[in-house]
Design brief:
4-stranded mixed sheet; CRISPR-associated endonuclease Cas1; single chain; DNA binding; Four Helix Bundle (Hemerythrin (Met), subunit A); DNA endonuclease activity; Ribosomal Protein L15, Chain: K, domain 2; 9 strands; alpha/beta; 5-stranded mixed sheet; globular
């Protein structure tokens, strides 16, 4: 089958028989392969009642959710690019009569999610969990019961940790600076911390999904859709994130041909295995939520 050019088969720019409900931002695909070529998401359709055979370029940035019907497959690159741009993906039955997505919540259990929700909904218990999180970081339970005070103490601890760990690896440290609108403007140490933090958060995402806890319900972080992920990842900021960031920064500084992001990504994979980070996160989440290894309350 011949490939289409970028524009003639591009949804929204040319006629296409692929149903696209603009009002809901949904794109239904069936019987074909979703893949990436040269940074562009494509759907190679085998042909069906809804989609003529052909190779279609998909404007994933403008779509809220892609629904894959029967007879479809997807590549790893496609999953990566959809995740990066926040495009949701689900497998569905013919016409949407079934809904399949992964990962399942706690392997079909809801008890951990309910335990999480109960702790989060109770203001006193929520603070208790937050204090335990800080206790893991400080090695002791702090007497303070004001979350703002605890955050301030943690901020001071981190400032000291930045300097100590930067000195350990011989990295010149000018302070933590991060512009969300222009992350590449940061100096290499700050860029390295951003990259390392992203990878540690991904590990926390996996641990939380495995346990079946609720990512939006954070005990320290608030308002974010992955607030609990940030809570969990931050418990390893001094032990994993910063040493990972500064050690790779020092190595890359002596070899400008190396990519900082790529080197941190490769090194993170090694560190996660060496330190058994994800299993440790799983155990920590269960401990925080007062559940045992079977997912029940002790």
């Amino acid at each position: 089958m011949s490939r289409t050019t970028l524009f003639p088969g591009r949804l929204g720019l040319a006629e296409s028989r692929i149903p696209h409900a603009d009002r809901h931002g949904l794109l239904w695909l069936t019987r074909g392969n979703l893949y990436v070529d040269d940074g562009t998401l494509h759907f190679l359709a085998a042909g069906s009642d809804d989609i003529a055979p052909g190779d279609y370029a998909i404007p994933y940035q403008t779509i809220s959710m892609i629904l894959l019907g029967p007879g479809t497959s997807i590549t790893h690159d496609a999953l990566r690019i959809l995740a990066r741009h926040g495009t949701l993906l689900a497998a569905v039955g013919e016409g949407g009569v079934k809904f399949y997505t992964a990962p399942p919540m706690g392997q079909g259990r809801s008890d951990i999610a309910r335990a999480h929700a109960r702790l989060w909904a109770d203001k006193s218990k929520r603070l208790d969990v937050a204090r335990r999180m800080y206790a893991f970081r400080f090695g002791k339970v702090l007497p303070h019961k004001d979350i703002a005070v605890l955050r301030g103490i943690e901020g001071g601890r981190l400032k000291k940790a930045y300097r100590i760990i930067a000195d350990r690896y011989g990295v010149k440290w000018k302070g933590r600076h991060y512009d969300r609108e222009n992350p590449e403007a940061a100096d290499p140490p700050n860029q390295a911390i951003n990259h390392a933090a992203t990878f540690v958060e991904a590990a926390a995402d996996i641990a939380i999904a495995m346990v079946g806890a609720l990512p939006p319900l954070g005990f320290i972080h608030e308002d974010s859709s992955n607030a609990f992920t940030l809570d969990v990842a931050d418990m390893w900021r001094v032990e994993i994130t910063l040493p990972l960031a500064f050690s790779v920064t020092a190595r890359v500084a002596g070899n400008p041909e190396l990519s900082l992001e790529r080197e941190i990504r490769y090194e993170a994979a090694k560190w996660f295995k060496k330190h058994k980070l994800i299993p440790a996160m799983i155990d920590r989440v269960k401990e925080l939520l007062h559940v045992d290894d079977r997912g029940g309350n002790p």
